[in-house]
Amino acid sequence: MSTAVETAHAEVKRIPLTGLRGAIARNMSQGWQAPRVAMWAEVDVTACQLKRARLMTEHPGFKVTLTAFVLRALALTLREHPHLNALMRDKEVELVDDINLALAVSVPGGLMAPVIRQADNLSVLELAAESRWLAEGARNGSLGAGVFQRGTFTVTNLGMTDIDGFSPVINPPQVAILGVSRVIDKPVVRHGGIVAAPLMGLSLVFDHRAVDGYPAALFLGDLKRRLESAEEL
């Protein structure tokens, strides 16, 4: 009897949907309303890892992550696929010239997405420095409101977790988002033999009102090839 009474009078814990949590709830609800399609690809990041090691040798003490290579490859690929670098407006799709990548950052109590402006004009080293500065600023609350505006495409990275793939929610009014999963060694066929290679998961989610499946698939394929060759990165 006492157990039932204690359960009945147990304090209910609630998290109000206000402030940052409320903003996230409203934004994600709006993003979920889009007719969204998801595509997945695995990317062999051997070439990126080799280039990353070389850059860190050439620049001692400077931390270069694979995320910087993803950002560089993504920005260059968006140049060639402008319909993914776009915003959904009332009864029209606005194609944006500037490639402004929003980088989702986990912060206490929620998620924030500061923006790297004109990311296609930045090198891997510059993107590494900019993304680190923005992530630190988002977590310690030192960024101004303007840093979170004018994003044209969002990247969300769960590569530090054990997740092999996921389907992120579009950040409206943008028309697409890229999810990045962990790198894990898997068997692949090379030159007729089976070897272990580091594979990274990429998931593209896009608004089907703005982009059809075939051009979206071409975009993801071009991004995969650019990362696997590490050319221009």
TrEMBL record:
One of its GO terms (cellular component) is cytoplasm. Pfam families: 2-oxoacid_dh (PF00198). The keyword Transferase applies. It comes from the Bacteria. Its cofactor is (R)-lipoate. Residues 11-233 form the 2-oxoacid dehydrogenase acyltransferase catalytic domain. Keywords: Acyltransferase, Transferase. InterPro entries: 2-oxoacid_DH_actylTfrase, 2-oxoacid_DH_E2_comp, CAT-like_dom_sf. Its EC number is 2.3.1.168. GO terms for molecular function: acetyltransferase activity; dihydrolipoamide branched chain acyltransferase activity; lipoic acid binding. PANTHER family: DIHYDROLIPOAMIDE ACETYLTRANSFERASE COMPONENT OF PYRUVATE DEHYDROGENASE COMPLEX, LIPOAMIDE ACYLTRANSFERASE COMPONENT OF BRANCHED-CHAIN ALPHA-KETO ACID DEHYDROGENASE COMPLEX, MITOCHONDRIAL. This is Dihydrolipoyllysine-residue (2-methylpropanoyl)transferase.
